[in-house]
Specification:
The complex is a heterotrimer of chains A (about 575), B (about 230) and C (about 70). Chain A has about 575 residues and is an alpha/beta fold. Chain A folds into two domains: about 1-50 and about 460-565, Up-down Bundle (Methane Monooxygenase Hydroxylase, Chain G, domain 1); about 50-250 and about 365-430, FAD/NAD(P)-binding domain (3-Layer(bba) Sandwich). Chain A contains 14 helices and 19 strands. In chain A, β2, α2 (about 65-75) and β3 (about 80-85) form a beta-alpha-beta unit. Chain A is globular and about 60 Å long. Chain B has one domain (about 1-225). In chain B, α5 runs antiparallel to α6 (about 150-175). The longest helix of chain B has 27 residues, at about 1-30. Chain C has one domain: 2-Layer Sandwich (Alpha-Beta Plaits), CATH 3.30.70. Chain C is built from two helices and four strands. In chain C, β2 and β3 (about 35) form a beta hairpin. Chain C is elongated. The chains are: A alpha/beta (about 575), B mainly alpha (about 230), C alpha+beta (about 70). Chains A and B meet through loops of A and loops of B.
Chain lengths: ~575, ~230, ~70
């Protein structure tokens, strides 16, 4: 994010000329809804009058989805003063509102033992899962589901009311529509976070002993998946202050529908209006890149078979373990998977896009497999390598389900379970530490960095840069059927965006300011995805390399961790499967 | 016989004006069509509201020009329409949230609370105010005989309360109505103008007012029938 | 046009809060919801589902070009 705040008055002669000549045309384009690229910034905000508001709590929870809910409640119940801050509304932002199936493991009725369940997930995940988190999810799922039931979660397809219930009962402050852009670190410890409110148009500073990122994952604001508010904000903020990040090479392979590809409500055939339900043990090897491979090899519209049956239609391609292969031509799985967090219960109508009609690819572009990307946990309590900084749900690279969709509905359950674990762990941490002092000078710097796009006299429109990024990352199977040359080519473009466009993003109001910060986060995430994809010279689960189609068990029984080097450059390391970071 | 003939002849244009026209405006307007239940409720509320405006044309002091001079009939219709459609208008806030009961999403009661708590603009407050006035109007009409007021005074009270109520009701409908596009708004304003403001202008002089009210009932009209 | 129409808005602001992508805002003058940033609509229908008076109409087409990977 720091590079967002280069000299705000930066305006080269070349750009000035382009600006002078093109401004009339730009105005016409923006009237059509097509964002202009470089243009003068007609800021409607006087940045000098933007005030600062400060908040203090032991634990700050960022994000109001399933993980954020449990992190907040459990941190409070463990004795901490908690504030929940969200970019959207509690239960109505991120992927949580659209997840309709939640896995619950009941030892008394489950068809297989807990050990057998963890083993089965590991087999489907080809070793990429972290069995500690797989087991934790299953073990605690029942207790979280019971709490959700008490709060009325299963009574309505809309989650704001039931999420508000435990929060109101505990009188916990919830601050909504605040975009957090910075995590603050002092003396090696987390010290708080900063951002801005879209409605009151203020800078918001949060001082906290511990911060829990429940910020979800993200994508490139793709069409057809309800993740356009998820731009890896938490991951990139944490990376910026030195946290380790993992899982960027994996890919969610959800198709979209060809007709009205952007209409995710329509694409999911009314599933968003359905009440949630529980799901029992049902382990698959789903929604990797197999369908993309068929489209790549055969071209044209793809006849949609069930996920996992790809190998039977086309030779080669991504490997599905024999145990999890589906019979060719069999019926699609009941309802398929919910977008994101949970699969819907079988046979209750609705279903993912592409299951009926002509599918298109890239509907969830930029998103990894749930729980496989995000902050690297250093233990089973959702702690990151920065003391006091925790993450839960899709913001934590826990590899709970591995690098492919395994247990249906486990994503939503995992968010609930990890939220609770992280909340308790953060509250425990707070008992032993004091608040870190943050200097006014540092806050002033952050203040300036946040508002920088508003201060630019001219710059690139964030919407246009996002479209440019989509144009690089979404077509040509860049992330689905990976080839070294194409990944390198895309990387060259993305680095150009990073170096030349990101520092010149403009914003006319606080909505565009949000877009500017989101765009910067997406660019960094794209760089991570491409570099990690280039580094992983094998194919496994949802990562498919056309030039390295086989699984490499000699060199690649390992996850890739990404961190910021001392010189500010992006660094990569391997972490052996089933081991904690050194 | 002459009277009833006149009435029957006037009835069709009246029905056309106060129900046919709003239905036509609703049917031809560019409104999104929703479920049958929601559309039925909308239409019922629109007709109910127009009927409230029609009431001003079904009085002695106003102009009963459409239905001729058979005041007994006019007053009877006035009472029936009044009781039926005032009730519909009074329950319309509940009718708006009723379809939620059949949907999986929001709780109808929660919706109603959200509606009633919206004070950021004047629309809801004005609506609540008009609703209260209309409730008083209904109660004082039902229990007119039990109210220790001279008939003349009660008529004045009823008239002015109706006028106040409908001015706020029109404001509320024009501000918040889902179907009050330009055409329906123009229709409402025109009716309100003709029904409320014109008679108001005519009745400005206290002597005219006095003479109208103290005019002896024409045959069938007894004081009690009003 | 993504969110096509808001009719019968009472100005409660629920849709503004419920929109994940900040498409809707209350008009400072009329205090009613307006479709301020239609290009950012992800057509998820949360605003419509949360509206207490069902005032929002949404169409499945998007106002800006849609980029997909293949089709």
């Amino acid at each position: 994010m720091t590079s967002l705040s280069k000299d705000p008055t930066l305006l080269s002669r070349r750009h000035f000329m382009a600006l002078a000549g093109g401004i009339a045309g730009m105005a016409t384009l923006s009237a059509l809804g097509v964002p202009s690229g470089w243009a003068a910034n007609t800021a409607k905000v006087d940045v000098d009058t933007v005030n600062r508001k400060e908040h203090t709590s032991d634990v700050l929870v960022i994000g109001g989805g399933m993980a954020g809910l449990f992190a907040t409640v459990k941190a409070h119940d463990a004795g901490s003063k908690v504030i929940l801050v969200s970019k959207g509304r509690l239960g109505s932002s991120g992927q949580t509102p659209f997840a309709k199936g939640i896995f619950t493991y009941d030892a008394a009725t489950a068809p297989i033992s807990l050990d057998a369940f963890v083993d089965k997930v590991s087999r489907s995940a080809m070793g990429t899962n972290n069995p500690v988190y797989t087991r934790q999810m299953a073990e605690h799922s029942r207790a979280r589901v019971d709490e959700l039931r008490q709060w009325g979660f299963f009574d309505s397809p809309l989650y704001n009311t039931c999420f508000s219930k435990p929060i109101k009962e505990r009188n916990i402050p919830v601050l909504e529509r605040i975009v957090i852009t910075h995590l603050i670190k002092e003396n090696g410890h987390i010290a708080g976070a900063a951002g801005f409110s879209m409605d009151s148009e203020k800078i918001q500073i949060f001082r906290a002993k511990s911060v829990i990122l429940c910020t979800g994952a993200g994508g490139f604001k793709p069409n057809g998946f309800p993740i356009c508010d998820l731009t890896h904000d938490g991951t990139i903020m944490a990376y910026t202050i030195g946290a380790k990040v993992t899982g960027k090479e994996w890919n969610d392979g959800h198709p979209g529908q060809a007709t009205n590809a952007a209409a995710c409500f329509d694409g999911w055939h009314g599933m968003f209006e359905r009440k949630p339900d529980t799901v029992g043990v049902e382990v698959h090897h789903d929604l990797g890149v197999d369908l993309n491979y068929i489209a790549y090899v055969n071209g044209g519209p793809v006849a949609m078979g069930p996920p996992g049956s790809g190998n039977t239609t086309s030779k080669g391609g991504p490997l599905t373990p024999a145990e999890f292969a589906r019979p060719p031509g069999g019926p699609p799985p009941g309802g398929g998977k919910a977008p994101g967090n949970g699969g819907p219960p079988s046979g209750k109508g609705g279903g993912p896009p592409g299951m009926a009609g002509i599918p298109v690819g890239g509907s969830s572009a930029g998103m990894s497999i749930h729980k496989s990307e995000g902050l690297v946990p250093i233990n089973d309590r959702c702690a990151s390598n920065i003391p006091g900084l925790y993450a839960a749900g899709d913001a934590l690279g826990s590899y709970m389900a591995g690098a492919i969709y395994t247990q249906i509905g486990s994503s939503l359950a995992g968010s609930a379970v990890q939220g609770a674990v992280a909340g308790t762990a953060a509250a425990d941490y707070c008992k032993a530490v004091d608040f870190q002092d943050v200097s006014t000078a540092k806050l002033d710097d952050i203040h300036q960095e946040i508002l920088a796009p508003l201060q630019r006299k001219a710059g690139y429109s964030p919407a246009w840069v996002t479209q440019t990024l989509q144009g690089i990352m979404i077509p040509n199977f860049v992330l689905y059927i990976k080839k070294e040359k194409l990944l390198q080519a895309a990387l060259a473009y993305v680095e150009e965006l990073r170096d030349h466009h990101m520092p010149m993003l403009r914003a006319a109001d606080f909505h565009e300011l949000r877009l500017a910060h989101e765009t910067a986060n997406m660019i960094i995430s794209a760089e991570m995805k491409l570099k990690a994809s280039i580094m992983r010279k094998e194919s496994r689960c949802s990562h498919y390399r056309l030039d390295y189609p086989e699984m490499d068990t000699t060199n690649w029984q390992a996850w890739i961790n990404i961190y910021k080097g001392a010189d500010g450059s992006m660094q990569f390391e391997k972490q052996p499967f089933a081991a904690w970071p050194a | 016989m002459m009277h009833s003939q006149t009435n029957r002849r006037g009835l069709l244009p009246a029905i056309l004006l106060f129900t046919g026209l709003p239905i036509f405006i609703y049917a031809t307007g560019d409104f999104p069509r929703r479920t049958l239940l929601k559309e039925s409720i909308s239409l019922l509320t629109i007709i109910g509201f127009c009927m409230m405006l029609a009431q001003f044309f079904l009085t002695r002091s106003g102009n009963s020009l459409l239905l001729g001079s058979n005041m007994a009939k006019v007053i009877k219709i006035h009472k029936i329409i009044g009781y039926v459609f005032v009730c519909i208008i009074l329950v319309h806030p509940f009718l708006i949230v009723l379809p939620r009961y059949f949907e999986a999403g929001l709780d109808p009661a929660a919706c109603l609370i959200t509606i009633l708590r919206t004070y950021s603009n004047s629309g809801i407050l004005i609506g609540i105010f008009a609703w209260c006035l209309m409730s008083i109007l209904l109660v004082t009409a039902i229990f007119r005989k039990k109210i220790p007021l001279p008939y003349k005074t009660w008529v004045q009270f009823h008239k002015w309360l109706s006028i106040a109520c409908m001015i706020f009701a029109c404001w509320h409908a024009l501000d918040l109505g889902r179907h009050t596009d330009r055409v329906l708004s123009a229709y409402i304003i025109l009716l309100a103008f003709c029904g409320i403001l014109l008679p108001l202008k005519n009745s400005k002089s206290p002597t005219v007012l006095q003479s109208e009210i103290s005019r002896p009932g024409k045959g069938e009209i007894s004081r009690d029938s009003f | 046009m993504t969110i096509k129409l808001i009719s019968g808005c009472i100005g409660c602001g629920t849709c503004v809060a419920s929109c994940p992508t900040d498409v809707l805002r209350l008009d400072p003058k009329t205090k009613k919801a307006i479709i301020k940033y239609p290009a950012d609509c992800q057509i998820c229908h949360l605003c419509r589902m949360y509206c207490p008076v069902d005032a929002i109409t949404i169409t499945p087409d998007k106002s800006i070009p849609v980029i997909v990977s293949w089709g």
